[in-house]
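Z., the sequence and structure:
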Amino acid sequence: MAKLDEAKERLGLLKFWLGAFVACFVGIGAWCATNYKLFSDAYLLFVLSALAEIVLLYLIYNLNKETKNILKEIRDLKK
């Protein structure tokens, strides 16, 4: 039973970070959509925003994959 509880705790922690990364991803995207006129003067700001979006998308993908693995582990532990 301890392994099942540990897997559930890991899943809860991953869900927290997944939510935080998705919120940052949406926030940066919304900020870029609202302030797109700034990018004509500040090209570096656009590049950094795009880089942050790419990094966040990569993190979201990896966390989602890890979450699926933990869900499979929980399913196997319940058997």
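The mean pLDDT is 92. The CA atoms of residues 36 and 42 lie 10 Å apart.

Let me know what you think.
H.
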